[in-house]
Design goal:
Blueprint: E1 4-10, E2 13-22, H1 27-39, E3 44-55, H2 57-73, E4 76-80, H3 84-93, E5 101-102
Parallel strand pairs: 2-3, 3-4, 4-5
Antiparallel strand pairs: 1-2
Helix pairs in contact: 1-2
Length: 114
């Protein structure tokens, strides 16, 4: 399956909306998008996995490597809205905390009292 990555930037935060399957054949595309985001002066990078039904160990390795890169650069990396099966794999591997996995995107976590 083809991988699509839509990049948007708003107020110091880059969101990479990923769709398709992330596997050994295309994980380098995600790595390149993350590297480009870290090259900019941003406070946060969010990887939205709402439209990713499958991620293999190569894709997870890209995300873990990005988490290390983000920590070194002082950037907050968040993995948002993973589908249930993807979130389960991240949890079983014990990388969900390191990836700052959130069930919904930052824009959807606005204070309901506002």
């Amino acid at each position: 399956m083809e991988l699509t990555i839509l990049s948007t930037t708003n107020e110091g935060r880059r969101t990479l909306a990923v769709s398709g399957e992330v596997d050994v054949s295309n994980a380098s595309e995600l790595r390149d998008a993350l590297d480009a985001a870290f090259a900019d002066d941003l406070a946060e990078v969010e990887v939205d996995l709402a439209d990713v039904a499958y991620i293999d160990s190569t894709g997870i390795g890209v995300l873990v490597g990005a988490a290390h890169h983000a920590q070194e650069a002082g950037v907050t990396l968040t993995v948002a809205r993973p589908q249930r099966n993807v979130a389960r794999v991240l949890g079983l591997l014990g990388v969900d905390a390191e990836l700052n996995v959130r069930p919904s995107g930052a824009a959807e976590q606005a204070d309901p009292t506002e």
